[in-house]
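Reviewers of the previous submission asked for a worked example of the structure-prediction workflow described in the proposal, so we include one complete record here. The input consisted solely of the amino acid sequence. No template or homolog information was supplied to the procedure at any stage.
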Amino acid sequence: MVEEERCSLLCLDLPHAEAVRADLPESQDIAVASGRARALADASRLRIALALRAGGEMCVCDLAWVCGLTQNLASHHLRVLRSAELAVSRRVGKLVIYSLTDAGRTMLAALTGAGLPAIHADRPAAEVLPAAAADASYER
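From that input alone, the workflow returned the following structure tokens.
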């Protein structure tokens, strides 16, 4: 450690230090937040999360195209985001539709600041996708 980074005098403001320590989140809560941050630390997953924030609900086909990924790779990254509870998925016929969770939007906002506007975030997939997407026989 560089000398300038350490105190020259060993001191401890115990009441202040104990108050700060008492206000820290529990270890398991810190571990969850750390896992979520790791999930967004990958450039492809961050790009996918940004696309979801901008587009609201999106199918994996659209996300792969928007992010310049294969569908298999996009699906892999989306599984990681789901595991970290940053995204959720649902099936609409043969399509799998993804969206950010509240935790995902919060982590993304903390990471990127105001960033991009959410274009379709408040619109259900049925309004954003072609009308045939809601039909179970719809094929892409």
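The CA atoms of residues 54 and 118 lie 4 Å apart. We consider this example representative of the routine output the project will generate in years two and three.
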